[in-house]
UniProtKB/TrEMBL annotation:
Enzyme class: ligase
InterPro entries: Acac_CoA_synth, ACAS_N, AMP-bd_C_sf, AMP-binding_CS, AMP-dep_synth/lig_dom, ANL_N_sf
The entry's keywords: ATP-binding, Ligase, Nucleotide-binding
Signal peptide residue numbers: none
Domain AMP-dependent synthetase/ligase: 99-465
Record's keyword annotation contains Ribosomal protein: no
Native species: Actinomadura barringtoniae
Coiled-coil regions listed in the entry: none
Family stated for the protein in its record: Belongs to the ATP-dependent AMP-binding enzyme family.
Protein name: Acetoacetate--CoA ligase
GO terms, molecular function: acetoacetate-CoA ligase activity; ATP binding
Pfam families, alphabetized: ACAS_N, AMP-binding
Gene3D superfamilies: 3.30.300.30, N-terminal domain of ligase-like (3.40.50.12780)
Amino acid sequence: MTEILSVPAADARERSEIGRYLHWLQEERGLTFEAYGDLWRWSVTDLDGFWSSLWEYFGVRAHTPPTAVLADRSMPGARWFPGATLNYAEHAFGLPGDSDHTAVIAHSQTRPPIELTFGDLRDRVARARAGLVRLGVERGDRVVAYLPNIPETLVAFLATASLGAIWASCAPEFGPRSVVDRFAQLEPKILLTVAGYRYGDRDIDRRDEVQQIRAELPSLEHVVHVPYGEQTVAAAVSWTELLAEPGELEFDPVPFDHPLFVLFSSGTTGKPKAIVHRHGGILLEHMKNSALSWDLGPGDRMLWFSTTAWMLWNALVSALLVGASVVMIDGDPVHPDLRQQWRLAEQTGATLMGVSPGFLMTCRKEGVRPAEEFDLSRLRQLGAAGSPLPAEGFRWVVEQFGDRVLLNVGSGGTDVCSGILQGGPLQPVWAGEISGACLGVAARAYDADGKEIVGELGELVITEPMPSMPVGFWGDDDGSRYRAAYFTDYPGVWRHGDWVRFAPEGHCVVAGRSDATLNRGGVRLGTAEFYGVVEDLPEIDDSLVVHLEDAEGGNGELLLFVVARTELDDALRSKLARSLRGALSPRHVPDVIGAVPAIPRTKTGKKLEVPVKRILLGARPEEVASADALADPDALHAFVAYARGDERGEAR
């Protein structure tokens, strides 16, 4: 039976943003909900009532009002708030009288810290907007950025959005091929870029990469150089020139479905999908998630390390929509040491700190004691996303912070640019499990026949539309690629691509990507549970597991690859096998355990189980993964060698 580590505080309704929303529902709509589960069920059955309540509660500023909430519930093709015109950027500058309040705190390894008030932000965005107009940017034009997580990126994004132009960004550590594969699809008019940056104690020169990128984007009319480090970009408009003249901070009203930004899939195989998100959908979804799950409001500060290529960057800057401040971090997040993110949380007074599960597990393994070593008295929530967090990680956080800090583990994705499963102030925390589905997200587990299942692993699906589901993919004029990506297996139902198990109470476990699920002798096993056991051992830093099926229906071959701190000898192999057998089952004991120098991951940290499987089945690396999409392209070499038979290790 799953262990409950914490329950909502007795005064959670009085102290939390979701509690204030519940009070508003009672006062304004005459609706009373005793528990989070009751509120969630209403949010996914009365879609008109729920989403219209968020529109009113958060005070969405519409230039023309909608004629309905949900005119068509079809998926794909749901029509939200028809007739409404608005602008996302109009909501990002705090409440009246907030001009002197802090909006942005930025720390990097390239230059000293920067702090901007809401007034500063308004002035810079107005200037950037005027500068973009001088460069000929109009509604529908694409503005792209090869920029790190710094205030200039936020300013350019909001200025772009204010004009009804469309934004996309890549982090400057991406190689030219990866950037062009993304940006060329959009035919951008403007490129904003840095010439270099500092990562830890290394200076990185990107001038050659910038030159290659601009040479392969023939649609570019202007390049804007953002000063960052010592290098400069030749033949470019300077950031100072762009912001040289003051302007009025105006917001072009656009339809609810007007494109706001384009996010890209990881691009491990083929060109990345260009996922188009809309002004209204992102505005409502991010207001909801920031306030009702992450408990952010005026006076709060959100710190979550992210590059500009990850959807969490968009979620981070959206904290401004509810009047909170954002902490922007650029550089090596563990420089000069593992404690740097905790140190920054202390220095910036973060009330919500987001980290990766891998970071938490490493801190646990290395004996870091954040609550004792740092003044984190303002911290109320610790968010974790990107991969599953084992139960031991949950317990470690509770040991460090007690019930003063809520551990909010979530799972979502670029596709909806938000959380799908998450916790919050009114939900219990279960060891090793996510607290439940987010409000407004009709998340279920389906079997292969499209029937809902509880207590068993199944496909994560969403059975009702959400406003933040994409408009579609850029360039997919007939919608065929979009439908194929999410709606082929279960017509009219969104298939997300994760493998999940829901408990009757609603809490759940994400067991990894469904296309990487291990099918051993007809029994499907999730990869996440392997990693939770293996990476908890002090001798193991990282791991990856794949299953090679037997064409005749047998058990196939289960292979576990580890990055070990010590020699992978027979004793360590035996320990791994015993740990998996004892913690999980005999079916989880690998046939082969091999050592590799590194586990291949995307730049956002996702393990490449499927590409590795394809390499082991004979595919060439260039056929399964774009090198520019990988954090360490050399990490695939060991698997190529293994496939050739150069290295073999037997499980004991």
